[in-house]
Design brief:
- Helix content is about 60%, strand content about 5%.
- The chain is mainly alpha-helical and about 300 residues long.
- Helix 2 (about 25-45) packs antiparallel against helix 3 (about 50-75) and helix 3 packs antiparallel against helix 4.
């Protein structure tokens, strides 16, 4: 178990306030980049329809669907735009609508995860409680994702629970998406969104979850350096798997008010001051995450390591 953590050992109050400042220009840029990549993926497949461009479009769309989820996540923390009404609008309509998640419902659920991380009351703990697992079991999970079984299951649950009063933003998004693609003469491209949503999206969501808490040193610790992980990723992993700085999850858990786009600099400063010393909490790429999450013969749960 780690020694009691004092933030003053690593950051001054003034430094934390500076890191917590939101940049409207950076936030707006991230929104434009994500939606621009979505539009670009459709344009690529429509302009040059062939197996390679269609596959590329599906991969990009799956990553940007997660990207929209990350934007909503940051908006739910009021840590994206400086204006909270803008956070609510972007989190609900410009990101949450496409993934069928209300920013208000998400915030109520997600803040419980932050409040109870490291305790049995953590509502997200069930997602990663069994890791590390055997390689064969991990392979089966990933195959269920990429072949669409997980996505079909989750989408069917959403459809069965659909209520117009609650889910109308999702319906409006799909009407607009199909209408736009029909207007440009490519209604068939609408299927690309669903192909990504049913296969690539569940796969990268699982990989992200494993990297955040599945390979943690000790999920029963209250120290973020033990119950959470950060993954340092390459440009292509940021493009396809870990968008919008979602990979800096350890730093986010300890400093939830810091916007995601400020986390890389925060990570670098904390590293220079020894914040991670003695803790095996940093993975290098998502292949490293999967390696840590599996073995030929894995224990049921991770074993705590001394600081």
């Amino acid at each position: 178990m780690a020694k009691p953590l004092k933030l003053s050992d690593y950051l001054t109050k003034e430094e934390l306030q500076e890191f917590s400042k939101a940049s409207d220009m950076r936030a707006l840029g991230i929104v434009f980049i994500n939606w621009g990549m979505i539009a670009g993926a459709f344009a690529l497949a429509i302009a040059w329809p062939n197996p390679l461009t269609i596959l590329a479009a599906i991969l990009i769309l799956g990553g940007r669907q997660l990207g929209l989820g990350v934007i909503q996540h940051d908006c739910s923390h009021h840590a994206f735009f400086s204006n909270q009404k803008v956070n609510e609008f972007v989190g609900h309509w410009l990101s949450g609508a496409a993934i069928n998640t209300s920013v208000h419902a998400y915030r109520a659920y997600h803040l419980k995860h932050h409040k109870h991380a490291g305790t049995p009351e953590d509502p997200d703990k069930w997602m990663v409680k069994d890791y590390p697992i055997t390689r064969e079991r991990l392979r089966r999970k990933l195959m269920r994702d990429i072949t669409g079984r997980t996505g079909v299951r989750d989408t069917w649950r959403q459809i069965k629970a659909f209520k117009l009063s609650k889910n109308h933003p999702w319906l409006i998004f799909h009407i607009l998406l199909l209408g736009t693609l029909t207007a440009v003469g490519a209604p068939w491209a609408y299927l690309l969104w669903w192909a990504a949503n049913l296969t690539v999206y569940p796969l990268i969501v699982r990989i992200r979850q494993i990297g955040e808490h599945g390979v943690a040193i000790d999920r029963d610790s209250l120290d973020p350096r033990e119950n959470t992980g950060t993954t340092l990723i390459s440009w292509w992993e940021r493009l396809l798997i870990g968008p919008n700085y979602v990979n800096f999850h350890l730093e986010h858990h300890h400093f939830a008010a810091v916007p995601g786009y400020n986390l890389p600099k925060l990570h670098a400063l904390l590293k220079s001051r020894g914040y991670y010393d003695g803790f095996d909490c940093i993975a290098t790429g998502y292949l490293d995450v999967l390696r840590r999450a599996s073995s030929a013969s894995a224990p049921a749960t991770p074993q705590p390591q001394a600081a």
